[in-house]
Design goal:
mainly alpha; Amino acid/polyamine transporter I; 6 strands; Cationic amino acid transporter C-terminal domain-containing protein; transmembrane helix; AA/rel_permease1; transmembrane
């Protein structure tokens, strides 16, 4: 066999710094955790996963969104807007389902990107730390999302006490004259309550979230049933408008779909609980799919009823559901709807605070953050320390800062995650990693296995034999600082190598084409000529890459990479490419102010990675071995769990 150095760490100068950008972690991070170390409790089954997914997705926004989108974009066609947005979200859900089934480990999109892409790309155009930035963006998403949700609870809760300023003094909002800020003790208190609940255990917190989610669903069912009764009684006046079913045309309906798409964000929370699922290969895909389907059905049913009760142009943009019932003599329904909004916000708050400690834990396991965040409590079997830290941080933001202006930043982390997950599906199907890292703690076992294999292959024990005359050569170096590991000839034939190269270039062509196409379409401030040229170039690159990926065969190792036997995403490469296209378009159109704020946060993340993560990464001193050889090493080594 050929002799090659397999170390990716320990490099010097520019070479070492460059290789740190192309590190990839092991598919199943459970393998590199010592047996006896506290693990997350495997308590979740399909009902709990569905409750977490639905509770994290169905927020109070739906109680407002139907009025705003119907008035400004879709009209009576709001239901179709929700359907199209649900189908678009399902594209990402399919990708998440396969990766969660293959790689059931904490960290969600951060974990998947680290496996498939690495800490960064080895191309000049993408010389950034991809996996780290995805995790860093998700931390921002869940922190701001949780704080924004918490501050939205107190105004709704105040309605039960008589009005916006009727909360008890200890919970009411107060303005600090010296600082010019409005503090919200109620929001901070709710964050602390949820944090304590999450520290108790995943079984207890998932039960509480399931209970709140069921109550919220009951409120939505009440809206659907009572609204249907009123609708038949009054003759569905909302559908009899003179403007027809599409008053804003098809473009308005599609614009409404882009707006309500963000109402489906939240199902990805299910993937972050992968290590706490009893049967992840079966339950995770079902949990993600059922949660998204239930959300879509609830959204569509509510929108069908509400746009039929009141003409779209007469809807109250702030309280469309309560106003619709009040207009038909059911003023008391306001309290039912408001209770649903409070329940939805509480459930979404739990869904926002649940994934963040697990993402921090996954990043700390990989050495990119201090080990403090990776500690799992022996009694509760949850990452208590990271949960407390994130709870305190979210409570501080909810207490002292009006984060509504930062709400757009929440979508950046989610859309980036959706894009990288879809790209990861393409990578795993066409060019899955054929080598995996072996950590320093396993290199001794690797060396002993090599020595045993060499001894078995040479029973005479002739240490003076001339290795240059042997066809298969194995060299063992005692110093693990610069190991030479066994590596075979390139897997398969030259045609297979050529196929992998073409597939990699095609995936790159798709990504570049999508970026150019969506940027050109969104650049409305340009003249028609550069927009047209950009659209043509982007479309050619996109269609060429998609055509080649559809024509060439997928990699033979796609069925055995990671955990086999789980869910497989259908319609590859079309489905993930459509997912990349839709989410990139939405990402680009978030607005300049949002991107400026996110850019500052990501720049901070780059500095954290350079000065800490790069030098403490668990892949710093690993050697890379073929997948089959790594599996054999882990199976024959004691003290490790699979």
């Amino acid at each position: 066999m050929a002799l090659e150095a397999g170390s990716s760490g320990g490099g010097r100068g520019w070479g070492g710094g460059f290789r740190c950008l192309t590190r990839r972690k092991q598919v199943d991070s459970d393998r590199v955790r010592v047996e006896g170390q506290p693990q997350l409790a495997r308590e979740l089954k399909i009902p709990e996963l569905v409750a977490i997914g639905v509770g994290s997705t169905v927020g109070a926004g739906v109680y407002v969104l139907v009025g705003t989108v119907a008035r400004e974009h879709a009209g009576p066609a709001l239901t179709i807007s929700f359907l199209i947005a649900g189908i678009a979200a399902a594209l990402s859900a399919f990708c998440y389902a396969e990766l969660a089934s293959r790689c059931p480990s904490a960290g969600s999109a951060y974990h998947y990107s680290y496996i498939c892409v690495g800490e960064g790309q080895d191309m000049v155009d993408f010389a950034v730390v991809v996996a780290w930035l995805i995790g860093w963006a998700l931390v921002l998403e869940y922190t701001i999302g949780g704080s924004a949700v918490a501050r939205g609870i107190s105004p709704n809760l105040a309605l039960f006490f008589g009005g916006p300023d009727s909360l008890p003094w200890i919970l009411a909002r107060h303005q600090l004259p010296w600082f010019g800020i409005v503090v919200d003790p109620c929001a901070a208190a709710l964050v602390f309550v949820v944090t304590i609940l999450l520290c108790v255990g995943i079984k207890e917190s998932s039960f509480a979230q399931g209970l709140v989610t069921v109550l919220n669903a009951c409120v939505m069912v009440f809206v659907i049933v009572a609204g249907t009764y009123i609708g038949f009684k009054i003759g569905w006046v909302g559908y009899k408008v003179t403007d027809g079913y599409f008053p804003f045309g098809v473009n308005g309906m599609l614009a409404g779909s882009a707006t309500v798409f963000f109402a489906y964000i939240g199902f990805d929370t299910v993937a972050s609980t992968a290590e706490e699922v009893k049967n992840p290969q079966r339950d995770l895909p079902l949990g993600i799919g059922l949660a998204l389907a239930i959300c879509c059905l609830l959204y569509m049913a509510v929108s069908i009823v509400i746009v039929g009760l009141v003409p779209y142009f007469a809807m109250d943009p702030d309280t469309p559901i309560s106003s619709a019932f009040a207009e038909h003599g059911m003023q008391w329904a306001m309290y039912v709807v408001t209770s649903g909004a409070v329940l939805a916000l509480c459930s979404t708050l739990m869904g926002s605070l649940l994934p963040q400690p697990r993402i921090l834990m996954a990043m700390a396991r990989d050495g990119l953050l201090p080990s403090f965040f990776s500690d799992v409590n022996k009694q509760t079997q949850v990452p208590v320390k990271s949960t407390i830290v994130t709870g305190i941080w979210a409570a501080a933001l909810a207490f002292a800062m009006d984060v509504s202006q930062l709400a757009g930043m929440v979508s950046v982390g989610t859309l980036l995650a959706f894009i990288i997950v879809a790209i990861s599906i393409l990578i795993l199907r066409y060019v899955p990693p054929d080598e995996v890292p072996l950590p320093p703690s396993m290199q001794e076992s690797f060396r002993l296995n090599q020595e045993r294999d060499e001894k078995d292959s040479d029973p005479a024990g002739d240490e003076n034999c001339n290795t240059s005359h042997r066809k298969d050569v194995i060299v063992v170096v005692e110093s693990m600082k610069d190991p030479l590991i066994e590596k075979g000839l390139p897997r398969g034939t030259m045609e297979e190598m050529r196929r992998r190269k073409i597939a990699a270039l095609s995936i790159g062509s798709v990504c570049v084409g999508v970026l150019i196409l969506t940027s050109s379409v969104s650049a409305t401030w340009l003249t028609i000529l550069p927009i047209t040229v950009g659209c043509v170039i982007g479309a050619v690159l996109l269609l060429a890459g998609l055509g080649i990926l559809s024509w060439i065969d997928q990699d033979d190792g796609r069925h055995s990479f990671g955990h086999s036997g789980g869910f497989m995403c259908p319609f590859v490469p079309l489905l993930p490419v459509m997912c990349i296209l839709i989410n990139t378009y939405l990402l680009i159109n978030l607005g300049g102010d949002t991107w400026m704020r996110v850019g500052i946060w990501l720049l901070m993340g780059v500095f954290v990675y350079i000065f800490y993560g790069r030098t403490h990464s668990s892949l710093k001193d690993v050697v890379y071995v073929p997948v089959a050889q790594a599996d054999e090493i882990y199976r024959t080594s004691s003290g490790y769990v699979s």
